[in-house]
Amino acid sequence: MTSIRDFLLIVIGVLLAIDVHECAHAWSADKLGDPTGRYLGRITLNPIKHLDPLGTVMIVVSSYAGFGIGWGKPVPVNPHRLRYGPTTGMALVSLAGPAANLVTAFILVLPMRLGISMPYTLAFILTMLAYINVIIAVFNLIPLPPLDGFGVLVGIVSAFKSPAMRDVGRFLSQLETRGPIILLAVLMLSWVLPFNILGIIMDPPLNFFWMLVRG
């Protein structure tokens, strides 16, 4: 089990990351032509607007175990109202969430990158919150539905008109219904196997983005 300090930091970090993430989805969709999220009041950093009850409980319980896993309420988006077409538009909206988390992480560590003196405790808190945002960004970039990486991948594939890419597009369409089950299986196996499948997938991009953020 984790300490009270780390428990609180993980909970706050994950809630902050989800808050920024979902707000970015709503904001980007609005800028691309679909105001649904704006009408629902989702372009806000008010966490109450973005938190899912079950997802929040999951965050608290998993944070007590030393890792924070949970989810927020997805932002409703009408792909057919998006500029650049449904697939490209949705790819951009999907990408906005992880991008916002990476920007947030950079802002959080910016005082340390600038050499600003601060108490160790504050530096530790900012670093932890930044790292959690990078983790959330990388996790959501995994190309499995319902994660954002899948929407980005579909957008990339749809940009190519070759027969091979059309076959890949059809495969991705079939994968969309099975993706959540596959993702759940990966998460469960990562907890029970002697090696961490999720860690193997996430560690290289996580190290890369964290290096970029920290400088």
List the helices and strands and how they pair.
Blueprint (H helix, E strand, L loop, with lengths): L3 H28 L4 H4 L13 H12 L21 H28 L6 H21 L7 H11 L4 H30 L4 H18 L1
Helix pairs in contact: 1-3, 1-4, 1-5, 4-5, 4-6, 5-8, 6-7
Question: Would you mind describing this structure in some detail?
Answer:
By secondary structure, this protein is an all-alpha fold. The chain has one domain. Helix content is 71%, strand content 0%. It has 8 helices and no strands. Helix 1 packs antiparallel against helix 3 (53-64) and helix 5 (120-140) packs across helix 8 (197-214). The longest helix has 30 residues, at 163-192. The protein is globular, with a radius of gyration of 18 Å. It starts with a helix and ends with a helix. The relative contact order is 0.12.
Order of helical and strand elements = HHHHHHHH
How far is the N terminus from the C terminus?
31 Å
**Mass-distribution shape:** globular
The helix tally amounts to 8
Report the helical percentage: over 70%
Specify the structural class.
mainly alpha
